[in-house]
Design brief:
By secondary structure, the protein is an alpha+beta fold. The chain contains 2 helices and 3 strands; from the N terminus they run E-E-E-H-H. The chain has helices spanning 54-63, 69-122, and strands at 6-9, 35-44, 48-53. A 3-stranded antiparallel beta sheet has the order 1-2-3. The protein is rod-shaped and about 110 Å long. Bound molecules: zinc ion.
């Protein structure tokens, strides 16, 4: 049985390269090795370990329809904007509701006052 894939930093075992593209990319800014996917217990070419580099991993994820980082950022921006608009509308709604309650109370008070005045005239 094949063990689950693991996310590792760098490619320690032979051939220290991605099985798909043959690269072992490093982070250009930090000089550190990038994350890679490692398939424990899997060997190809009589003893070579299987690694998939970050670039190939991202290509695979895109092929499976993962939302790209760009798409995710766009959605996040849109979400934040809509959330802000929603909160503004909620606030306006609460204020309008409070105002309507006061108007309703005022009308009830006017009606009550008229009824009382009528009763007092009858007496
Ligand atoms: Zn690769």
């Amino acid at each position: 049985m094949i063990a689950p894939l693991e996310l590792v930093k760098g490619m320690e075992l032979t051939p220290q390269a991605c099985v798909l593209c043959g690269n072992n990319p490093i982070d250009e800014n930090t000089g550190e090795q990038q994350d890679a996917v490692f398939a424990p217990g899997v060997d190809v070419d009589w003893g070579s370990s299987v690694y998939i580099c970050k670039s190939c991993g991202e290509l695979i994820a895109d092929l499976f329809g993962r939302v790209t980082k760009e798409g995710f950022d766009r959605l996040t921006t849109k979400y934040e904007k809509l959330k802000g608009e929603h909160e503004k509308l909620q606030d306006q709604h609460e204020r309008a509701k409070a105002l309507l309650d006061r108007i309703r109370d005022g009308r009830a008070a006017v009606r009550e006052n008229k009824a009382q005045t009528k009763r007092e005239k009858v007496k």
